[in-house]
Write a structure and sequence with these properties.
By secondary structure, the protein is α/β, with parallel strands linked by helices. The protein has helices at residues 7-19, 42-47, 64-76, 92-102, 104-112, 131-139, 180-189, 199-213, 215-222, 231-241, 253-265; strands at residues 25-31, 51-57, 80-83, 120-124, 157-160, 165-168. The two termini are 24 Å apart. It is found in: Cytoplasm.
Length: 277
C-alpha cells in the first residue's frame, strides 16, 4: 500500500481549517488526468459549505473529451469546474467568470455595505497538481515556489492577483489511502515521490491503462507492431524498442519504467486521461 504523509502536511491541514473564515471561495486544483484520485477526500469535510470551484489543471495533458465529461459530473454535484493550463494561462478568464457567478451574493453584499467588491480565495490541492504555477501565471511573476517534485510549497501565504487575493497553501495528502488504486494514480502522475515507490509496479499499472484505452499511442510512440496481452511482456517490448538492454540482451525493465512514466508525465505519449467519471 502506497502512503506518503510527511509531518508538515498534518500541520498544513490545521492551518487551512483555521484560515477558512478569512476567504470567500476555495479553489480546489486537481489533475485533469485523474480528477478523482487527485481530490483529497478530507477536503469536503474541511471546506464544508464554503463556496468552491474545481480547477482541472494540466488539461492540455488530458483527453479533452473525458475532461468535458468530468466538468458535467462536477456540475451535477453542484460544483463549478473549469479547465486550466497553468503554464499557458488557458482558462484564467473562465475562472474569473466562474468566481463572479459562484460569489454573486457575496459581491452584492460587499457593494451594499460600500465595500470594494474584491474577493478572497484559498488554493488547495494535493502535491504537484500545479498550485504555485497557477498562482505565478495569475500574477505574472514567479513569487510562488514551483518545482516538478511534490512538496515544494511548505507554508501559507497571501498573494495579490489582478482578479482576487489568494491564500496559497501547501499540497496535502491524507494519512491513509483506502483504495490502493488512488495511490497508484497519484504515483503515476508524480504526486508522490518516486524514491519511495516500486517504479516497475507503477509502470505496469500505467501499461494496463494505456493498453486498454490508448493502445495506438503506445504503438506510435514506441514503434510497436502489436499490443501483446501480458503487461510485463509489453513493458519489455517497449524496453527493446528504446534500447534498454542489459548484458546478454535482457531488457532493463527498471530503466524502461522510468522512460515510460517520464513520457506520460510530459505528454509525449499524447493527451491521456487515466480516470473516467
Amino acid at each position: 500500500m502506497i502512503q506518503w504523509y510527511p509531518g508538515h502536511m498534518a500541520k498544513s491541514k490545521k492551518e487551512i481549517v483555521s484560515n477558512l473564515k478569512l476567504v470567500d471561495v476555495v479553489y480546489e486544483i486537481v489533475d485533469a488526468r485523474i480528477p478523482k484520485s487527485s481530490r483529497n477526500p478530507d477536503i469536503d469535510d474541511i471546506v464544508k459549505n464554503k463556496k468552491r470551484i474545481i480547477l482541472l489543471n494540466k488539461a492540455d495533458l488530458a483527453d479533452d473529451v473525458i475532461t468535458d465529461l468530468w466538468i458535467e459530473y462536477f456540475k451535477g454535484k453542484g460544483i463549478e469546474a473549469v479547465k486550466v493550463n497553468s503554464i499557458t494561462g488557458f482558462g484564467l478568464k473562465e475562472i474569473n467568470e466562474a468566481t463572479n457567478k459562484v460569489c454573486q451574493d457575496i459581491l452584492e453584499k460587499k457593494k451594499q455595505k460600500g465595500m470594494i467588491p474584491r474577493l478572497r480565495g484559498m488554493i488547495v490541492g494535493v502535491p504537484n497538481v500545479g498550485k504555485s504555477t497557477f498562482i505565478n501565471k495569475l500574477i505574472g511573476s514567479k513569487r510562488a515556489k514551483t518545482g516538478d517534485k511534490p512538496g515544494v510549497t511548505r507554508a501559507l501565504h497571501w498573494i495579490k492577483t489582478p482578479y482576487f487575493d489568494l491564500l496559497d497553501t501547501p499540497g496535502i495528502l491524507w494519512p491513509k489511502f483506502d483504495d490502493k488504486k488512488v495511490g497508484i494514480m497519484l504515483a503515476i502522475t508524480g504526486a508522490i515521490k518516486d524514491e519511495i515507490l516500486d517504479i516497475e509496479e507503477i509502470a505496469l499499472n500505467l501499461v494496463a491503462i494505456l493498453k486498454k484505452y490508448y493502445p495506438n499511442y503506445l504503438m506510435s510512440r514506441y514503434k510497436i507492431d502489436k499490443i501483446v496481452n501480458e503487461d510485463f511482456e509489453l513493458l519489455k517490448e517497449i524496453g527493446k524498442k528504446r534500447g534498454c538492454l542489459l548484458a546478454r540482451g535482457e531488457v532493463d525493465t527498471l530503466k524502461t519504467s522510468h522512460i515510460l512514466l517520464e513520457d506520460f508525465r510530459k505528454g509525449k505519449l499524447g493527451r491521456i486521461s487515466l480516470e473516467r467519471p
